[in-house]
Every structure is written in structure tokens, then in C-alpha cells.
């Protein structure tokens, strides 16, 4: 988590950003107190002067403060730091019970089944399903670009492909393999740590399915899961040398 000082700074910058106009010291103090901060107006005033000196805020006469461009960047930095720390906590919890060998076993099994599912989806998918697959993929891209967690959208993407394949046996098999609901968050964190982007692979899979090309779809899915296997290997190698 952020330090107490950083959390206070973050909350102040958010209050200033969300104000419809320049906001004064007293109003900021009231909102901070409502959020649980034990703070006086005099202390808020001193902190605001510090923010002014750092050029994170700009004083507008007697009306109060507005957020500067540097303040917007500072707020984004603090938010990113908070997300990164939260990711670490969530990952540590999710990783419990997931060894490298277990993850690789699951991925090898997924590669065999999901590659065939992708090929069948390219043959059997409806136009509405292809459109939905595209929207899932685009939402995933946007969330990841904003620094958010998109593990559930990864699950939705692969689940829809299984549905599109129209093969109940293969669908049941992959559902059994993917029943661990912590698997996607673990893999998403690993990809982040090794700078790998799943949605780029998803685009290639989508193109194969949308183009009704089972060969292309199968190959794209195989390459996608091969990359996940490489990411797991790379992550454990980096961790062992950390």
C-alpha cells in the first residue's frame, strides 16, 4: 500500500481533480475528514503549499487550487504504484498451491484441447459470436492499457471460443482443466512481470476465427499457449535469480 503521506497526497489530489472548479483549503479539509483523515485545516494549508511548490497544484487567486498537468502525472504515478502493490498482494495469495510444474501441466493440456476448439470455432461460429469475441478482446485491451486487471475477460474470451466450437466433449474437457478460478489471475500477473501481452495473441486467434480459417485459428491458439508456457518458464527463471 501507499505510505500514509502518499495516501494523504493522493486523496488531496483526487479531491482537487474532481472539483468542478478551484477548491479551497476548508472544503478540501472537510472532504479529507469525511474520508477518515484526522487532519486540521492548518495542516491542509501547509500540505497545499507543498503541492504548489512541487507544481502539482496551481493557486487561483482566493478561489483555491486546481490540478496542474504535473499534478495529473503525479496522481497517475501514485495510482499506478498503488495498483502495483495491490497486484503483488493478490498474486501472492493466488499463487499459493500453484507450482511451476502444475502450471505447465495445465498449459500443455490446454494447448492440445484449445487449439482444436479454435479450429472448430473458425468453422462453426456465428456472426454474432464473432462480434462478441471482438468486443471482449477490445475491452481487455483497454483495461490492460489502463493498468487494470483483465483476468476475467481472458476467461470470457476462451470460454466463448469453446462455446463457438460446438463440441460438448471438448468444451467439458477444457472446463475441467480451467476450473481453478485463480489460474487466470496468476497467469496475468506472470505476463505482466515478463512484459507479455495476451491480447496481441488474442487478436491473431480472433482473425483466424473471423476469417473462417481453422488452420490459422489452430496455429494462433497453439502459438498463444506456447507463449504462455515460455512466460511461466521465464518468470520462474527470473524469480530464481532475484
Automatic annotation (TrEMBL):
Residues 105-227 form the GntR C-terminal domain. One of its GO terms (molecular function) is DNA binding. It comes from the Bacteria. InterPro entries: GntR_C, RNase_R_HTH_12, TF_FadR/GntR_C. Keywords: DNA-binding, Transcription, Transcription regulation. Transmembrane segments: none annotated. PANTHER family: TRANSCRIPTIONAL REGULATOR, GNTR FAMILY (PTHR43537), UXU OPERON TRANSCRIPTIONAL REGULATOR (PTHR43537:SF5). This is GntR domain protein.
Amino acid at each position: 500500500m501507499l505510505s500514509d503521506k502518499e495516501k494523504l497526497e493522493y486523496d488531496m489530489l483526487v479531491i482537487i481533480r474532481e472539483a468542478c472548479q478551484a477548491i479551497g483549503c476548508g472544503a478540501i479539509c472537510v472532504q479529507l475528514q469525511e474520508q477518515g483523515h484526522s487532519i486540521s485545516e492548518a495542516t491542509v494549508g501547509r500540505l497545499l503549499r507543498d503541492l504548489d511548490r512541487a507544481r502539482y497544484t496551481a493557486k487561483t487567486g482566493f478561489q483555491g487550487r486546481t490540478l496542474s498537468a504535473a499534478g495529473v502525472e503525479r496522481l497517475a504515478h501514485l495510482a499506478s504504484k498503488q495498483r502495483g502493490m495491490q497486484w503483488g498482494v493478490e498474486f501472492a495469495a493466488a499463487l499459493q498451491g500453484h507450482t511451476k510444474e502444475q502450471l505447465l501441466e495445465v498449459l500443455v493440456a490446454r494447448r492440445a484441447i484449445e487449439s482444436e476448439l479454435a479450429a472448430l470455432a473458425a468453422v462453426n461460429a456465428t456472426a454474432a459470436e464473432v462480434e462478441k469475441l471482438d468486443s471482449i478482446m477490445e475491452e481487455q485491451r483497454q483495461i490492460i492499457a489502463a493498468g487494470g486487471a483483465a483476468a476475467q475477460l481472458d476467461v470470457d474470451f476462451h470460454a466463448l471460443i469453446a462455446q463457438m466450437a460446438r463440441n460438448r466433449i471438448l468444451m467439458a474437457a477444457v472446463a475441467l482443466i480451467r476450473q481453478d478460478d485463480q489460474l487466470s489471475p496468476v497467469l496475468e500477473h506472470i505476463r505482466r512481470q515478463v512484459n507479455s501481452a495476451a491480447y496481441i495473441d488474442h487478436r491473431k486467434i480472433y482473425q483466424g476465427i473471423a476469417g473462417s480459417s481453422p488452420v490459422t485459428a489452430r496455429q494462433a491458439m497453439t502459438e498463444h499457449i506456447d507463449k504462455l508456457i515460455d512466460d511461466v518458464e521465464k518468470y520462474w527463471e527470473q524469480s530464481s535469480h532475484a
